[in-house]
Amino acid sequence: MPSWPNSNETSDGDDEYMSEFSSMQMEYFVTPDTVIHPSFYGLVIESDRRCILHRQMPGKFVAFEGTDTGKRFIGCATEWVEAPWPVILQRCLSKLWDIYHEQNLGRAQDNKAHGTEVAKLQKELDSLANQYSQLVDDVPKLFDYQDGKKCHDMDCTSQAMNELKDKKKQLEEQAKIELKMEKLKLKKEQRCILQSQADIIKNTRKAMKEIEVDRDLLKEEKKKLENVIAELLKIGHGCKEKLDKIKEVVMEE
């Protein structure tokens, strides 16, 4: 443990302490983080000791770092009041501090990502602001352009209307001509149909007349044939009577 000089020592004593200070390792003067504790704070007033490093009265502190969390010490050079904590408690403290540092690292990474996102959004916002300013500047130009274009469009519209009227007139005339041609074509087809019907009726009547003539001829031929058959039957009966008489004569002899 480092020693603490008394306030009533001479300059020779100071030189001795400075010599002792120079021979000590600086790691002894690295103190842990601390926390305010209501039962252990302030300066050490019970003795006249002085800090070798600062030549001031040492203070009372409670550690808040690593496995020494909660232990009391006197600084600057760390002089522990309590003995080291049990191993199990040190492991628990080490685990808790690992979790704490891990969460801090996560928060730092989140803050970094948040800062990056904020910078990106700010850049986009600046870009949108520039675009908005450009649009504000372009609006008057657009109105001027539209005013000039409106006159040109009116002339173009008038010319287009005239062209549409002429085209409509041409289409109407063409439609009238086509309608007239269709009517003439329809009349011609109707005449052809009527002529065909007349020819069919005429031919039908002629055929019917020829059939009637043929039927009359057939009737006459049939009548003649019936007469011939009647004569033949009459002659046949006469021949039979003669044969019967000849047969009787032969039988008598």
UniProtKB/TrEMBL annotation:
Keywords: Coiled coil
Protein name: Uncharacterized protein
Keyword Coiled coil assigned: yes
Coiled coil: 111-235
Organism from which the protein derives: Triticum aestivum
